[in-house]
Amino acid sequence: MSRLRCALRGFDLKALLLLFVGVPLLIFIIYVHGQKFTYFLRPLWESPPKPFNTIPHYYHENVSMENLCKLHGWGVRETPRRVFDAVLFSNEVDILEIRWHELSPYVSEFVLLESNSTFTGLIKPLVFAKNRHRFKFAESRLTYGSIGGRFVKGENPFVEESYQRVALDQLIRIAGITDDDLLIMSDVDEIPSGHTINLLRWCDDIPEKLHLQLRNYLYSFEFFLDDKSWRASVHRYRSQKTRYAHFRQTDDLLADSGWHCSFCFRHIREFIFKMKAYSHVDRVRFSYYLNKSRIQDVICRGADLFDMLPEEYTFQEIIAKLGPIPSSYSAVHLPGHLLQNADRYRYLLPGNCKRESG
Question: What GO biological process terms are annotated to this protein in UniProt (predicted)?
Answer without folding.
Answer: N-acetylglucosamine metabolic process
